[in-house]
Write a structure and sequence with these properties.
224 residues, Immunoglobulin-like, four-stranded mixed sheet, 26% helix
Length: 224
């Protein structure tokens, strides 16, 4: 008897989910961001983009419903919990979703303001209902963006990078490394290529002594 009850509950649950999905697909056009805001956010530091005063952040939107025959405007709002002010960012000039698309990308511009040296700004964007679209599933209807000019270890500078290639992280070493190899972001780069970059950096340090903030020589452990 218990097994029958459990089976019925599962069937009811699946039916409810399907009903919700059918409602979404059959009751108009819904717009969402492409990521779950509870699990994913954007975190950017100008520190990793030397010489840049502005950065463009892609905002990817997904459409649930009918493909558009013509591009249509949608509405974004800035959540009141945001700490970023209007001088820190520029929203996309035209908030439109393209025709015949299930996904479209616009770009947010963030500015390198003086306060980013001292604090991390938070910007939360929300999709609002308008005559063309409704905001989709709650967790996908907003996006969290954090930006600063603060020093932090990039994700790609892992324990293997520390042990075998570049050693411990420091702002001085990182900025010089980027200058020497001509790259600032090695996320997704193969370890074989990172090894080549590390060897290039090692050769540079052998001929050009450089120092950490505390006066120690900048060195790397890569063998070769």
């Amino acid at each position: 008897m218990k097994k029958i009850i459990i089976l019925l509950l599962v069937i009811i649950s699946l039916f409810s989910c399907n009903e919700a999905e059918m409602f979404i697909y059959n009751s108009g056009n819904y717009l969402t961001f492409n990521e779950n805001a509870k699990k994913d956010s954007v975190d950017v530091s100008f520190f990793f983009h030397p010489g840049e005063d502005k950065l463009e952040i892609p905002l990817v939107f997904n459409l649930t419903g009918n493909l558009l025959l013509v591009e249509q405007e949608f509405t974004l709002s800035v959540d009141e919990s945001s700490t970023a002010t209007s001088e820190d960012y520029i929203l996309p000039e035209n908030l439109v979703f393209g025709k015949n698309k299930v996904s479209d990308t616009l770009y947010l511009c963030i500015n390198k303001t003086d306060k980013l040296d001292l604090e991390k700004c938070k910007l939360i964007l929300r999709i609002e209902d308008n005559n063309n679209f409704k905001a989709g599933f709650k967790d996908y209807s907003y996006k969290k963006i954090y930006f600063s000019n603060l020093v932090s270890i990039p994700k790609w500078w892992t324990s293997d990078i520390i042990s075998y290639y570049l050693g411990g992280f420091s702002a001085e070493k990182y900025l010089l490394f980027c200058k020497v190899i001509g790259e600032a972001d090695l996320e997704g780069v193969e370890l074989s290529q990172i090894r080549q970059y590390s060897l290039t950096f090692k050769r540079y340090l052998e001929n050009n002594h450089a120092y950490e903030k505390n006066g120690d020589l900048i060195t790397v452990p890569v063998i070769g």
